[in-house]
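Two entries, shown back to back:
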Amino acid sequence: MVQRTVVNTDRVVYRGAKATEAVREICAVYGEGAIAERTARYWFAKFKGGNFDLKDASRSGRPSEFNEERLDQLLHEDARQTARELAERIGSNKSTVAEHLHSMGKVQKLGA
């Protein structure tokens, strides 16, 4: 038997439930596809292990932020720098710098 304990109006804790049952009930309330069964299984395993932290874990090897102001400042110092040179000065990789340059409307001018 599934016991539901209401924590507040937005959250329901499922005790003795299986991930499949929780997915069915959540989708009945929020609509088809609101949660994948795989996600629910991950949550159930995490909670069963005693981890109730709802924040995402930090990822290794990936910067959490990119300082676009610093990139703009470096461009003002010398607009002829390559993405590779900018990346080295910022401490990021070339593709990330190129992506931010593009989002800032900076384009490569050939023959300039």
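entry 2 starts here
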Amino acid sequence: MSKNVKAGELRHKATFERKTETLDDYGEPVTTWEFLADRRAKLTAIAGNEYWLASQTKSKATHRIECRHLPGLKTADRVRIGSRTFEIESAFDPTNIGRRSLILATEEL
């Protein structure tokens, strides 16, 4: 993992969404996804050894997504990149200075 993400590596437009539940006209819960933010992102498939290491912490992440810092991300949120959707397994700032977010995610098939 690189310490800094260069702007040229942020090739994908990522849309972050937050899960919300509302009630329909009959009182039944309906899950919807509310827009949270757009960011340019770097999408990387996790190699076999990284996947194995991730599984040691009970994670099933299949991709790593890096972007400019986005505070407040939760594991209930998701990321859409093109027609692909990713569930967030974990999200954190590896630098602890608010420059970027590193997200481990699982692709929904």
